[in-house]
Amino acid sequence: MIYMDAAATAPPRQEVLDTVSPLLTRDFGNPASHHEAGHQARRAANWARAQVAAQLAVREEEIYFTSGGTEGANTAVIGGALGNPRGRVVVASAIEHPAVLEACRYLVEFHGFTLRLIDVTADGLVDLEHAAQLIDDDVAVVSVMAVNNEVGTIQPVAQFAALAHAAGALMHTDAVQAAGWLDLAPLAAAVDALSISGHKIGGLKGSGALYLSGKHRFVPLLHGGGQQSGLRSGTENPAAAAGIAVALQVCASQRAQGLGEGYGPYLIEKITRGLEAKHPGSVRLTGSGSQRIGGIVSFVFPKTAGETVLIELERKGVLCSSGSACAAGSTDPSPVLTAMGYQEQLAHTAVRLSFGRGIKENELSQVANAVIAAVGGLLPASPGAA
Amino acid sequence: MNTSAVYLDHAATTDMTPAALAAITAQFAATGNPSSLHTAGRRANRVVDDARIAIAAAAGAHSSELIFTSGGTESDNLALKGLFWNRVNANPAARMILVSGIEHHAVLDTVTWLAEHEQAELCWMPVDADGVLDLQAVRALLEEHHEHIALGTIMWANNEVGTVQPVPEFAALLAGYGIPAHSDAVQAFGAVPTNFADSKLAAMSISAHKIGGPVGIGGLLVRRDVALMPVQHGGGHERKMRSGTLNAAAAAGFAAAATEVADHLAEEAARLSGLREYAVQQISQLVPEAVLNGPRDAENRGTRLPGNLHFTFPECEGDSLLFVLDMLGIASSTGSACTAGVPQPSHVLLAMGRDARSARSVQRFTLGHRSTRADVDALLEALPQAYERARKAGMAADESSIHTAGTGFTR
User: Fold this and answer.
1) Which residues form the Aminotransferase class V domain (chain A) (predicted)?
2) N or C, fewer C-beta in 10 Å, chain A?
3) Which residue in chain A is spatially nearest to B411 when comparing CA positions?
4) Whole-Å CA distances, A52 to A218, A247, A378
């Protein structure tokens, strides 16, 4: 079984488990307690905060630990909009994760906001020109994801941030899918809020980190004991925080070594060539060919129907998905592909292969062969093909 | 543990039980997002399902009534905001929230936020000198205001003084007027019987790390005829009430801990309350000035959390005593871990009618699953000298000159 669904979740890394293990056992204290066990937990949480701040090149006071990507995005979007409402308009791209879109819809339903959606191009790039038309002095928050979770497109976040800032709005980026592949420091420098999730990069589930610029006011999502400067109440979780810190460090060092950079292009090339040779027109890459992270490879298969390729791949021992796990089981086509202009039938044939930098190279070639065989097996032999 | 020799702060957080640790560790080795359709996802989903069934059973609820959250604070936020918004949607005139002054900050700060930002009106329910809710007063408040009350909330057991509240009676009073009741059962769940179905509550908050499960996961039991407006929006998980990737590993750890506490509830309550009563008797002789706060419950009738000891040590700053005890190898607390930081009087004791000065002179010792007689004896040995030393330091006039924290952590 080869796991190719890292964008849905990835197992915790060994380095992470080694670090968190004492925090789950011997050093279990509550960081808010004032005895030595509490101090020990506080030191662990502080260490984690310092590491994450260093990775993002921001100040430690600007890092908050959350329960995950959804809470981070909710806090940034809702907290930013309520803390800085201006003309009660929020702007998001049409292909944002539901954590962002649903947070925006909550602002619409309960706080009288208007939501403006930025179009995307056919290759999954959020349209800058359209954004420029939508972002004006009424806008409270602009949210554009750093990397799309379904098609892996890297968005020009700094340019959206420039538009937002020129209008006086706050800029948030959902960097959940970027964290394993891109340097987060330039992203953080460009925006006012950035959210990441631990379990997508080898940290623990139930862990997230959120950068909120100290220059702006954010209203907390959770109220209570006043932990984390009052911005995020709830007993702090040093193990989860340390896990995300270590996972980010490992990602950074793999990135510095260039590990896995060629894996995405390799899969795209091998699968496309292998299928086109026998079955012309049977495969289309979704998303941009150049502006994409190495860890998400996504296709539609025009000559197949529904999720047959996905099922065939699982039979061949390759676990992957059609897109977002949150929407798995839904009969609606992917909203991301729909926004990119794909027809419903074609969108249903989507397959996303996602992986971390540490994947074994022999697994990649097995996956490529499995995709070619799976799609080929579903198609009648093409008479014109060699 | 290598940090403090004797840990008497299990109400702040307790270490994971071996069963919980084993369950969570086993899940770390697997992967899968429970929402994914492939085998890894389905396997993770089964883990979450099994955990849901086990935790719900331990809480006397149906598995479909359990919403997983990130912890007690989120559960309280979801219950109170969700109930409030839904009730106000149905009847804009019903904006009152019945609440007691002894609630945890997760409840107090949430209702305060609702009052400041959502035009909620707070209606305070009194408690007696032991911290027990005054049901007569609740009756009167209901009679007068029931048409304007959106919901009521009462914690099942107080986190500072351990008082157990008449929750089913409270919920029944509200149910008589069709008003939903919520209870923060974070401290009570696993320590005293908290049967959700029997309680007639609309919602009940629980947390894993207080019962030997992992930090970072909790639950909100929500009766099936109750819908809540979510606090955390997204992929539509958990009956669309709480979005966010489900945490299979933590859920498995939570389930292991919940099953353990439920299976041994009566015997563990008897064991801990026996230790507690022994400590109460000894402390009254060793430190005659000490005053036990909350019901004594010498016979373990369930009016106080079995593992909770809470004393006023007159003329002694609580933080000083905590500091000296910590140096002597005893980990204790002045109240909830959340408010530790600046010597402030406990809001719980103020609500119980204590003056601000004596409300600062308190210390909480909480026993947990691995507390033994030897731990209590260590406390008894250290306490008289610790009290003597802390009392010599005296009470700060307005603001403490004693900085015990040294952590840079505020609140």
Assistant:
1) 2-366
2) C
3) A226
4) 20, 10, 46
Dihedral over Cα of B248, B251, B257, B258: its sign: negative
* HSE toward the beta carbon, residue A195, CA cutoff 13 A: 28
Which residues, other chains included, contact B239 with Cβ-Cβ below 8 Å and sequence gap of 6+?
A: B64, B67, B222
Which DSSP symbol is given to A382? Answer: P
The 8 Å CB, 24+ separation contacts for B43-52 are B44/A9, B44/B246, B44/B248, B45/B246, B45/B248, B47/B248, B47/B249, B47/B251, B47/B252, B48/B246, B48/B248, B48/B251, B50/B252, B50/B255, B51/B248, B51/B251, B51/B252, B51/B254, B51/B255, B52/B251, B52/B255
* H or E element in which residue B147 lies: none
CB contact under 8 A, B41 and A68: no
Q: Give yes or no for a contact between A121 and A291, defined as CB atoms under 8 angstroms apart.
A: no
Separation in Å, CA of A71 to nearest CA in chain B: 6
Interface of B with A in 75-134 (CB under 8 A): 76-77, 85, 104-107, 109-110, 112-113
| Partner A contacted by B35 (CB < 8 A) | yes
Cβ-contact B410, B342 below 8 angstroms: yes
CB B353, CB B134: distance < 8 Å: no
Minimal CA separation from B132 to chain A, in Å: 22
Structure tokens at B240: 């669309």
At position B32, the amino acid (one-letter code) is G
DSSP letters of B71-125?
SHHHHHHHHHHHHHHHHHHH-TT--EEEEETT--HHHHHHHHHHHHHS--EEEEE
Exposed, middle or buried, A108 (CB in 10 Å: 0-12/13-18/19+)? middle
Question: Which residue from B260, B353, B368, B358 is spatially nearest to B317, judged by alpha carbons?
Answer: B358
Rounded to whole angstroms, the Cα distance separating A239 from A237 reads: 6
**Does any CB of chain A come closer than 8 Å to the CB of residue B247?**
yes
Residue type, B59: A
Let me know if A372 is exposed, middle or buried by CB neighbors in 10 A (0-12, 13-18, 19+): buried
CA B281, B283, B286, B287: dihedral to nearest 10 degrees?
-130
* Model pLDDT for residues A192-204, shown as the tens digit of each residue: 999 999 999 999 9
Which of B53, B338, B393, B402 is labelled catalytic? B338
Check pLDDT > 50 for residue B408. no
With tokens 């804009």, the residue in question is B92
Rounded to whole angstroms, what are the CA distances from A358 to A93, A244, A263, B26, B165? 31, 17, 10, 22, 53
Average pLDDT over residues A329-354: 92
- Residue range B313-335, pLDDT digits in tens: 999 999 999 999 999 999 999 98
Identify the pLDDT of residue B403.
39
As given in the structure block, the two tokens for residue B184 are 């923060």
